[in-house]
Specification:
Length: 225
């Protein structure tokens, strides 16, 4: 495979989630993912854009088996090192052209991988194709409506190698490109990166209580008809 965008970001990606703010971000993002996905023992899942497996590990802890795909070989190698002994399988593949037959999985999820796909509707249609009828798809992306997106756009304009290539999408846009209705949506990470750590739990609580659509992460869920 040709070099992928994240090939040189393996350590930096995991290191971000090990910072004080990153740990909080991961916790709130993971909570939303698990609530929407509801992985069950024995289910066969696809993680599209699994990266280093940093979210996959918690899904597998619920008893599901997971196949992870990603364009980045170094990211996949890290995921296999983290999860291989648990039965995780990895494959270099594009989420817009999945190498799986129709109805291959009980559930499919993708954490902020669609952010780097120009044709988001095509990617979501592929995810829908490979899930069985009655199965579930959960896709998350970076929200275009939140302050984190504003900061990242500025960094992208200044030449940041990742943020210059992100496609930010709002909850409304994610619903519009989802192939199946009804679609449930929610956002998480309602705090700003520079908010005091001690204030973050209350900020997050209020954001969820008010059902704000400006959280940094958007999640959409639909069940295959």
């Amino acid at each position: 495979m040709q070099p992928a965008l994240f090939d040189t970001w393996t350590e930096r990606y995991d290191s971000w989630f090990a910072t004080p703010v990153g740990r909080l971000v991961k916790g709130y993002e993971l909570e939303l993912l698990l609530a929407f996905l509801d992985p069950q023992p024995g289910e066969r899942l696809l993680d599209a854009g699994c990266g280093t497996g940093i979210f996959t590990v918690d899904v597998m802890a619920r008893g599901a088996t997971v196949i992870g795909i990603d364009l980045s070989v170094p990211m996949l190698a890290e995921a296999v090192g983290r999860l291989g002994e648990r039965g995780f399988a990895a494959l270099g593949a594009d989420m817009c052209a999945l190498p799986f037959a129709d109805r291959s999985f009980d559930k499919v999820f993708s954490m902020t991988a669609i952010d780097f796909v120009a044709d988001g509707g095509k990617a979501m249609a592929e995810l829908d194709r490979v899930v069985r009828p009655g199965g579930r798809v959960v896709v998350t992306t970076l929200n275009s409506l939140g302050p984190w997106a504003t900061q990242r756009r500025q960094k992208g304009a200044a030449g940041h190698e990742l943020f210059a290539k992100i496609y930010f999408r709002s909850p409304e846009v994610m619903c519009a490109i989802s192939p199946t209705a009804p679609v449930e949506t929610a956002t998480a990470v309602h705090f700003r990166r520079d908010d005091p750590l001690e204030d973050i739990p209350e900020i997050e609580r209020r954001g969820r209580e008010q059902n704000l659509d400006t959280g940094a992460l958007v999640a959409v869920r639909w069940d295959k008809v």
